[in-house]
Amino acid sequence: SAADAKDKWLRRVDRMNVNKLIFKFSDGDKFEDDMAKRFDNLNFENKVCFTAKEYNGLKSVVTLKKFKNENRVHDEWKHANKNFNIVSFINNLKITP
Predict the structure, then answer these.
(1) Rounded to whole angstroms, how far apart are CA atoms 7 and 1?
(2) Exposed, middle or buried, 91 (CB in 10 Å: 0-12/13-18/19+)?
(3) Nearest one of 49, 45, 23, 61 to 94, comparing CA atoms
(4) So what's the pLDDT on residue 95?
């Protein structure tokens, strides 16, 4: 039933530790400059935002140089490895209880 499904979902959500999640964002469709800062200010340690434009002072932003002459990144996971080491990022996650 719908009530059972909702109950199961809520139990799963309760088991999630958001401190073990990685939050990813990029400057895709309908992106506005202030969104990079707002994302950087979110109260999550493990986050990354891929952009075509540089945003100085935002620690979660990774500028993908391949797209420096464009308004946005495309297929960021395909191109991110030149500017971002995902393995190192995962191995160095800040995990709090």
Answers:
(1) 10
(2) exposed
(3) 45
(4) 77
Interatomic CA distance for residues 43 and 6, integer angstroms: 27
Go through the chain and tell me how many residues it has. 97
Strands across the sheet with 47-51, in order? 23-26, 47-51, 61-63
**Domain extent listing, the chain:** 2-91
Report the helix count and the strand count for the chain, using DSSP H and E: 4, 3
Q: How many CB atoms lie within 10 A of CB 4?
A: 8
66 near 82, Cβ under 8 Å? yes
For residue 86 the two structure tokens come to 């995902």
The pLDDT of 37-60, averaged and rounded, is 95
Q: Which residue has the tokens 């950087």?
A: 40
Joined together, the tokens standing for residue 11 give 């139990």
Q: How far apart are CA 51 and CA 95, in angstroms?
A: 25
